[in-house]
Write a structure and sequence with these properties.
The protein is an alpha/beta fold and 167 residues long. It contains four helices and four strands, in the order βαβαβαβα. α3 links the parallel β3 and β4.
Amino acid sequence: MSGHLPMNSNAGDRNKKRVLFLCTHNSVRSQMAEGLLRAMHGDRFEAYSAGVVATSVDPCALRVMREIGIDLSHQRSKTVQEFQGLVFDLAVTVCDHAKQACPIVSTDLDHPGSFPVARVILHHSFADPASVTGSDEERLMAYRRARDEICEWISETLSKKQAGLSA
């Protein structure tokens, strides 16, 4: 799949900005961000997510996203290598580990290598709900909090003309 991902599936998508959300395992925060951006602004953005390593989409993330009418069951955990050589308009690291470990630190569009590149790279660290211990309800509250914080960040950052990204 590397380098062959259909980034523009039809003529209507050509004007959409491509956004890649990055996290360590591509199981919770980046998956939520991908689903939220697609649901909130799918008319203007193509949303993708990846991780330093691939695992699986966290069941609690699936559940709390379903609570607000967003189905992530079709999404899967991916590594950045799956997007090898592709150019994104924006890459967003959503955890500190991904900021340091993800090789998508290049904005050198003339020399795409074995990892994706982005015109703009942003970082916003969201707390990891998977690290919360406690009752099932306490854990779900942490997932809901992360979901809502990501939703708010997307609204504040990508709903406005920010860094030349609004389509």
